[in-house]
Structure formats: structure tokens, C-alpha cells
Here is the input.
Amino acid sequence: MSRSVRTRPEGSGRGLNEAYDTALLDLDGVVYAGGNAIAHAVESLGTARDAGMRLAYVTNNALRTPDTVAAHLTELGMATDAGDVITSAQAVARLISEQVPSGARVLVIGGEGLRVALRERGLEPVESAEDDPAAVVQGFGGPELPWGRFAEACYAIARGVPWYASNTDLTIPSARGIAPGNGAAVE
Here is the structure.
């Protein structure tokens, strides 16, 4: 059975870019997979932008900073500013900043995106349970994340330190196929 691509809201004679002024776009597996754009993404999003639609990119991948994501999108042919990118690292950093005092130490299990987002919220990223963290945050750290990082989280959590996860997706699309996501380590 083939599925047709819907270009209009149900019951509407207007195209999506005429019916809506902004599109919130997921990234991994929707706009790109690994280092490559998904087929037709560059052309389709360029057409939408040229027609006046604002494009905002939303990702639950906390590994990279908005600057890095925007640069990657631009390299793929989708000119993007960091202000057009919202990451789960930013969301979880905001949540933590509302729960702990300003300047608090937060044990980071994940990538640079988490560290930058925490600093932007006035929090201090640390690497060890011995650094007396007020919270633990876990986000996707890529395939090279050392197992010892999870042990540090366990030591802090066992002492009653609250644990936050940037997302619980069990998998993440990559250029080679489906890989374990942050949720695989959360579970």
C-alpha cells in the first residue's frame, strides 16, 4: 500500500505554508540522518522558507549545541541561525535551573550541548559525584561515551541527588541505521 504525501491540512484548499506561518521540525531521521540530509528535505524546506514560512528546528538530541546544529544544517544547504534551533539540552537545563540554586553544580553524563546549556542557565557542569552535585543530568553522549560516566551518575543518585534525562528515546537514527539512544541508558 502506498501513502500519498499530504501537502494541505485536511479539509483545506491551502498548502501547509499558506495555512501555517511556522513549522517546528524534528531533526534526527526527519531532516537528516547522521551527516546526510533526508531525501528532498533541502528542497522542500527551501521552498517553504521562500514562501514565507518560518522554520524552527527542534531536537531531543542533547549532544550538540544550537550553534553546531545550525552550522550542520547550513552545510547541508539549509541556511540556519542558532536561534532557530531548540535542543533538549536547553529544555532540561531550564528545568534544572528552576529546581536548584543558581550556580549549583550539575553532574553531566552526555555531550557538550548539555554543558553549554547548563552554563547558559548559570549552573556549573561537573564530572564527578565527588564534586557534590545538586543534580545529575543525562543526555545523548554519542557512541564514545565512557561507561565510567554512568558509574559517576549512579554514585550521586544513590546518595539522593535528583536525576534528569534530556529524553528517553530508546533509539536514534544514524547514517548506518538505528542506534541506541539516550533512553537505552535511562531504562
